[in-house]
Amino acid sequence: MNITWYGHSCFKIQTKKERGGDDVNLFTDPFDKSIGLRPPQGSADIITVSHQHADHNQTQSLKNNPFVIDAPGEYSLKGITLRGIEAFHDNSQGAEKGRNTIFVIESEDIRICHLGDLGHLLEDKQIDAIGAVDILMIPVGGKDTLDSALAEKVIGQLEPKLILPMHYSLPGLNLELDNVEKFCDDLGNETEKDVAKLTLKKKDLEDKNGKIILFEVAN
User: Check: CATH 3.90.420.10 for 2-215?
Assistant: First the structure.
């Protein structure tokens, strides 16, 4: 499995249905150029959209007529199992900023959880629905989502093996968000920086315990 990051909440997960099979390209929360970053490009098979804001739902920027998943439910596509779990963009049951869908993505025996624009601590039923997490994609920039303090608490709820921060301040990004250094300092976990692409198998996760991965933004 290969994971790259286009900035904000957009990751590309490149996986295979079976060993030696064709690649399957899954993108999360593609954005448009209005946020100041270069939108993701290329061919997609599956796109997950956590909520209908322009910095998370610009599916038209990707080619190949991908299957778009933008609601809670159970899905199985091209050998990938996905589960959408209802959550909220704020701490007021969505009254301020609306709903948000958490996605659990399972492929190659690796479980990835993308929290979208989660804005609150998880309820027990959400924790149960998410289950064990190998890789957690979590917003840490505050303002419209989890800030550093809340992100740390959510990490404690899910206990992931790898942590991939997202939705934080970047050069060129015209959204006002906190920087990722505050989150890393507050959490205090082992951190690997300037990662262009994360390539891993299930066995590579066996000895991991909350390691933070900070990506370079893909071109």
Answer: no
